[in-house]
Specification:
6-stranded mixed beta sheet, globular, 6 strands
């Protein structure tokens, strides 16, 4: 049984539920979900392939566990030109990365 107090106090629990919500959103939009982890510690939450064959990494920005380097390493290693970060900030676009606010997850199916 999950209580409101547990949800508010445990950031790792909130992150897990949020990641699950994103996975569900992508799956419902028809995407197969993949995960990337390098030999080291770099990891990307989701990797999807578009209907036209483009590979798009999707990273969830977690203020407690910043993985900004992981996405950049992935993009450089596989010569990926575009990526998505789910963030608490507003919409923006920097160095091939589209920043999507968490409240706008419904936009993912139109962006990918």
């Amino acid at each position: 049984h999950l209580t409101k107090k547990q949800l508010l106090e445990k950031s790792d629990l909130k992150y897990t539920l949020f990641e699950n919500h994103i996975a569900h959103t992508l799956f419902e939009a028809g995407y197969s979900l993949y995960y990337y982890q390098s030999e080291g510690k770099a990891e990307v939450n989701f990797v999807v392939q578009t209907r036209v064959g483009r590979v798009i990494p999707i990273e969830i920005v977690n203020k407690d566990m910043s993985k900004a380097k992981s996405l950049t390493l992935f993009m450089n290693k596989f010569d990926i030109k575009e990526a998505i970060r789910i963030t608490d900030d507003n919409f923006s676009f920097k160095k091939g990365v589209k920043y999507i606010p968490a409240y706008a997850l419904f936009c993912l199916k139109d962006i990918i």
